[in-house]
Amino acid sequence: MFRIITLLLVLTSLYGCSTSTKYLRPDGVTAQSLSPTTGILVGSISRSRNAIVNVFESFNFKNVTTGESNQIASKHNFIASPDDFVTNESLGAIFIFSLPAGHYSFNYFRIFQQNLIYSTIQRPTSVYSIPFEVHANTINYVGEIKLDPEAGKVFKGISEQTEYYWIISDQSNRDIELFKHLRPDIPLNSFVSVIPNTKEIFTPFVILPDEMKKYQRENSH
Questions:
Q1: What SS3 class is residue 180?
Q2: In degrees, to the nearest 5, what angle opens at C-alpha 17 toward C-alphas 39 and 149?
Q3: Total domain count, the chain
Q4: Reported confidence tier of residue 62, pLDDT bands at 50, 70, 90
Q5: What is the pTM of this model?
Q6: pLDDT tens digits for 117-132?
Q7: Is residue 65 part of a domain?
Protein backbone atom coordinates (compact mmCIF):
# COMPACT_ATOMS: atom_id res chain seq x y z
CA MET A 1 0.00 0.00 0.00
CA PHE A 2 2.82 2.41 0.87
CA ARG A 3 4.47 1.78 -2.52
CA ILE A 4 1.23 2.46 -4.40
CA ILE A 5 0.54 5.68 -2.48
CA THR A 6 4.14 6.83 -2.99
CA LEU A 7 3.91 6.18 -6.73
CA LEU A 8 0.66 8.14 -6.97
CA LEU A 9 2.24 11.09 -5.17
CA VAL A 10 5.30 11.01 -7.41
CA LEU A 11 3.22 10.90 -10.58
CA THR A 12 0.99 13.70 -9.33
CA SER A 13 3.96 15.91 -8.56
CA LEU A 14 5.57 15.16 -11.92
CA TYR A 15 2.57 15.47 -14.19
CA GLY A 16 -0.30 16.98 -12.23
CA CYS A 17 -3.95 15.99 -12.33
CA SER A 18 -5.12 18.23 -15.12
CA THR A 19 -6.92 17.09 -18.24
CA SER A 20 -5.32 14.36 -20.32
CA THR A 21 -4.72 16.66 -23.29
CA LYS A 22 -2.90 19.37 -21.33
CA TYR A 23 0.40 18.79 -23.14
CA LEU A 24 -1.19 18.01 -26.52
CA ARG A 25 -3.74 20.76 -27.01
CA PRO A 26 -3.24 23.44 -24.35
CA ASP A 27 -5.84 26.13 -23.73
CA GLY A 28 -5.66 29.37 -25.65
CA VAL A 29 -5.50 28.07 -29.24
CA THR A 30 -8.20 29.84 -31.26
CA ALA A 31 -8.76 31.25 -34.71
CA GLN A 32 -7.19 34.45 -33.36
CA SER A 33 -3.92 32.50 -32.98
CA LEU A 34 -3.54 33.02 -36.72
CA SER A 35 -2.22 36.58 -36.59
CA PRO A 36 0.62 38.73 -37.97
CA THR A 37 2.77 37.72 -34.98
CA THR A 38 1.63 34.16 -34.14
CA GLY A 39 1.00 30.87 -35.87
CA ILE A 40 -0.36 27.43 -35.02
CA LEU A 41 1.88 24.36 -34.79
CA VAL A 42 0.20 21.05 -35.67
CA GLY A 43 1.49 17.49 -35.75
CA SER A 44 1.04 14.13 -34.06
CA ILE A 45 2.84 12.21 -31.34
CA SER A 46 2.53 8.46 -31.56
CA ARG A 47 4.06 5.16 -30.59
CA SER A 48 4.74 2.01 -32.57
CA ARG A 49 2.14 -0.72 -32.29
CA ASN A 50 4.81 -3.08 -30.90
CA ALA A 51 6.03 -0.65 -28.24
CA ILE A 52 5.36 -1.28 -24.57
CA VAL A 53 3.00 1.13 -22.82
CA ASN A 54 4.93 3.82 -20.95
CA VAL A 55 3.55 5.96 -18.16
CA PHE A 56 4.62 9.19 -19.83
CA GLU A 57 6.41 10.30 -23.03
CA SER A 58 7.45 13.82 -23.96
CA PHE A 59 9.23 15.37 -26.93
CA ASN A 60 10.34 18.91 -26.15
CA PHE A 61 11.11 22.03 -28.14
CA LYS A 62 12.18 25.57 -27.35
CA ASN A 63 11.97 29.05 -28.84
CA VAL A 64 15.53 29.81 -29.97
CA THR A 65 15.19 33.54 -29.27
CA THR A 66 13.47 33.51 -25.88
CA GLY A 67 14.52 30.09 -24.62
CA GLU A 68 10.93 29.29 -23.63
CA SER A 69 10.32 25.52 -23.59
CA ASN A 70 7.27 23.48 -24.51
CA GLN A 71 6.64 19.77 -24.30
CA ILE A 72 4.52 17.57 -26.52
CA ALA A 73 3.51 14.78 -24.19
CA SER A 74 1.20 11.82 -23.84
CA LYS A 75 0.21 9.85 -20.75
CA HIS A 76 -0.91 6.24 -20.68
CA ASN A 77 -1.69 5.55 -17.01
CA PHE A 78 -4.24 7.08 -14.65
CA ILE A 79 -5.70 10.01 -16.66
CA ALA A 80 -4.58 8.69 -20.04
CA SER A 81 -4.22 10.76 -23.19
CA PRO A 82 -6.82 9.72 -25.76
CA ASP A 83 -5.66 8.26 -29.07
CA ASP A 84 -7.01 10.16 -32.07
CA PHE A 85 -5.91 7.48 -34.55
CA VAL A 86 -4.90 3.84 -34.75
CA THR A 87 -3.18 2.46 -37.86
CA ASN A 88 -1.21 -0.67 -38.74
CA GLU A 89 1.98 1.26 -37.96
CA SER A 90 1.19 3.48 -35.01
CA LEU A 91 -1.35 4.90 -32.60
CA GLY A 92 -1.36 8.39 -31.19
CA ALA A 93 -2.86 11.85 -30.96
CA ILE A 94 -2.83 15.27 -32.60
CA PHE A 95 -1.08 18.17 -30.89
CA ILE A 96 -1.98 21.83 -31.48
CA PHE A 97 -0.01 24.81 -30.11
CA SER A 98 -0.37 28.57 -30.51
CA LEU A 99 3.15 30.05 -30.76
CA PRO A 100 4.93 33.30 -31.56
CA ALA A 101 6.35 33.23 -35.06
CA GLY A 102 10.05 32.50 -35.09
CA HIS A 103 12.76 29.88 -34.92
CA TYR A 104 12.42 26.79 -32.75
CA SER A 105 14.40 23.67 -31.99
CA PHE A 106 13.56 20.15 -30.84
CA ASN A 107 16.08 19.64 -28.06
CA TYR A 108 14.99 17.10 -25.43
CA PHE A 109 12.85 14.05 -24.73
CA ARG A 110 11.81 12.02 -21.71
CA ILE A 111 10.28 8.56 -21.37
CA PHE A 112 9.00 7.36 -18.00
CA GLN A 113 8.51 3.62 -17.52
CA GLN A 114 7.26 1.85 -14.41
CA ASN A 115 6.20 -1.61 -13.33
CA LEU A 116 5.73 -3.34 -9.99
CA ILE A 117 9.48 -3.89 -9.60
CA TYR A 118 11.22 -0.75 -10.84
CA SER A 119 10.85 2.53 -12.69
CA THR A 120 13.15 4.18 -15.24
CA ILE A 121 13.38 7.54 -16.96
CA GLN A 122 15.11 7.70 -20.35
CA ARG A 123 16.63 10.99 -21.50
CA PRO A 124 19.09 11.97 -24.23
CA THR A 125 22.70 11.35 -23.33
CA SER A 126 23.91 14.63 -24.85
CA VAL A 127 22.63 18.00 -26.07
CA TYR A 128 21.02 18.07 -29.52
CA SER A 129 19.23 20.60 -31.71
CA ILE A 130 16.81 20.01 -34.60
CA PRO A 131 15.64 23.38 -35.96
CA PHE A 132 12.29 24.30 -37.49
CA GLU A 133 10.36 27.53 -38.01
CA VAL A 134 6.86 28.67 -37.08
CA HIS A 135 5.40 31.10 -39.62
CA ALA A 136 2.90 33.78 -38.67
CA ASN A 137 -0.76 33.66 -39.68
CA THR A 138 -0.61 30.04 -40.90
CA ILE A 139 -0.95 26.40 -39.87
CA ASN A 140 2.56 24.96 -39.50
CA TYR A 141 2.71 21.16 -39.88
CA VAL A 142 5.77 19.61 -38.19
CA GLY A 143 5.07 15.93 -38.85
CA GLU A 144 4.31 12.74 -36.96
CA ILE A 145 6.76 12.15 -34.09
CA LYS A 146 6.69 8.41 -33.45
CA LEU A 147 8.36 6.54 -30.60
CA ASP A 148 9.71 3.26 -31.95
CA PRO A 149 11.55 0.52 -30.01
CA GLU A 150 13.49 -0.95 -32.92
CA ALA A 151 13.84 1.27 -35.98
CA GLY A 152 16.93 3.20 -34.97
CA LYS A 153 18.91 0.09 -34.13
CA VAL A 154 19.18 -0.93 -37.78
CA PHE A 155 20.94 2.28 -38.79
CA LYS A 156 24.65 1.95 -39.46
CA GLY A 157 26.90 3.93 -37.15
CA ILE A 158 24.49 4.10 -34.18
CA SER A 159 26.28 2.63 -31.19
CA GLU A 160 24.34 4.15 -28.28
CA GLN A 161 22.18 1.67 -26.46
CA THR A 162 18.58 2.65 -25.78
CA GLU A 163 15.21 1.01 -25.99
CA TYR A 164 13.67 3.71 -28.16
CA TYR A 165 14.16 6.02 -31.11
CA TRP A 166 11.93 8.82 -32.38
CA ILE A 167 11.00 8.88 -36.07
CA ILE A 168 9.71 12.10 -37.67
CA SER A 169 7.73 11.62 -40.89
CA ASP A 170 5.15 13.32 -43.09
CA GLN A 171 1.65 12.06 -42.27
CA SER A 172 -0.04 15.32 -43.21
CA ASN A 173 -2.92 13.74 -45.14
CA ARG A 174 -4.09 11.98 -42.00
CA ASP A 175 -3.09 14.59 -39.43
CA ILE A 176 -4.58 17.63 -41.15
CA GLU A 177 -7.90 15.84 -41.63
CA LEU A 178 -7.91 15.04 -37.92
CA PHE A 179 -7.02 18.64 -37.10
CA LYS A 180 -9.98 19.86 -39.16
CA HIS A 181 -12.24 17.44 -37.31
CA LEU A 182 -10.93 18.44 -33.88
CA ARG A 183 -10.89 22.19 -34.52
CA PRO A 184 -13.45 23.11 -37.19
CA ASP A 185 -13.46 26.63 -35.72
CA ILE A 186 -9.91 27.28 -36.98
CA PRO A 187 -9.72 28.07 -40.72
CA LEU A 188 -7.21 26.18 -42.85
CA ASN A 189 -6.69 29.00 -45.33
CA SER A 190 -2.91 28.87 -45.10
CA PHE A 191 -0.80 25.76 -44.55
CA VAL A 192 2.95 25.13 -44.66
CA SER A 193 5.09 22.08 -43.92
CA VAL A 194 7.89 22.78 -41.44
CA ILE A 195 9.02 19.17 -41.01
CA PRO A 196 12.72 19.34 -40.07
CA ASN A 197 15.33 17.73 -42.28
CA THR A 198 18.56 18.93 -40.69
CA LYS A 199 20.27 18.52 -37.33
CA GLU A 200 22.09 21.58 -36.06
CA ILE A 201 23.56 19.43 -33.26
CA PHE A 202 23.48 15.72 -34.06
CA THR A 203 21.61 13.05 -32.11
CA PRO A 204 21.20 9.42 -33.13
CA PHE A 205 17.95 9.10 -31.18
CA VAL A 206 15.80 11.15 -33.59
CA ILE A 207 15.50 9.95 -37.20
CA LEU A 208 14.51 12.58 -39.78
CA PRO A 209 12.78 11.92 -43.12
CA ASP A 210 15.92 12.32 -45.26
CA GLU A 211 17.84 9.94 -42.99
CA MET A 212 15.12 7.32 -43.37
CA LYS A 213 15.02 7.75 -47.16
CA LYS A 214 18.81 7.42 -47.40
CA TYR A 215 18.78 4.25 -45.33
CA GLN A 216 15.98 2.75 -47.45
CA ARG A 217 17.87 3.54 -50.69
CA GLU A 218 21.10 2.00 -49.41
CA ASN A 219 19.32 -1.17 -48.29
CA SER A 220 16.83 -1.61 -51.13
CA HIS A 221 18.84 -4.30 -52.92
A1: helix
A2: 70
A3: 1
A4: very high
A5: 0.83
A6: 767 788 888 999 999 9
A7: yes
